[in-house]
Amino acid sequence: NPYIAPGWTLKDEEGCGVRVWATMKGEDQPRVLELMLSQAQVRNSTLWASDPKQQLAYLATKRWSRLHCPDVIMGVYTPDELQETAPRVERDITPQTTTAAGMNSLINAKPAKKPDEQTRKSDSRDPEEMLMAFTSAAMNYSTVSELDKAYKYIAQKLSDDDELLAKATDVYSVRREELNETSM
């Protein structure tokens, strides 16, 4: 191991460790964690060779806080904690060129002349509510034509808000791609 202190053997590390403890509010006894240098398996820094006790203290503090008060560190993780055992499967969400042309025709299409009763009710919603409703409804559509119809409506309603329209377009693109993949 290149990160063992120069001139040290594994025998020299035996018995070298740190103890971390704290008494939580309302408790009588401290919560203790003892960590020996031999338990530090991942040593991806030269500081393990130059100052192993300091590195061990950092590691023990991290492990103690993960064990006894994970809410205090509020989701802050070190890179080695984020390494996944199995790599994530990447999903290509790049729209096809034909899809982009189809989206342009949907966006530029003329609005329907007379909205039905359900459409009138939805007009009273604010744009963010409409986007949320479209997002949840899009996942329930089973055909591209249903999705296209809903997107045409939402694109028309959100045409004044570029940011919300972009979000709706993203939802539409991803769901359309999913529907196209399942139909093949």
From TrEMBL:
<feature type="region of interest" description="Disordered">
    <location>
        <begin position="95"/>
        <end position="127"/>
    </location>
</feature>
<dbReference type="Pfam" id="PF03837">
    <property type="entry name" value="RecT"/>
</dbReference>
<dbReference type="GO" id="GO:0003677">
    <property type="term" value="F:DNA binding"/>
</dbReference>
<protein>
    <submittedName>
        <fullName>Recombinase RecT</fullName>
    </submittedName>
</protein>
<dbReference type="InterPro" id="IPR018330">
    <property type="entry name" value="RecT_fam"/>
</dbReference>
<dbReference type="GO" id="GO:0006259">
    <property type="term" value="P:DNA metabolic process"/>
</dbReference>
<feature type="compositionally biased region" description="Polar residues">
    <location>
        <begin position="95"/>
        <end position="107"/>
    </location>
</feature>
<feature type="compositionally biased region" description="Basic and acidic residues">
    <location>
        <begin position="113"/>
        <end position="127"/>
    </location>
</feature>
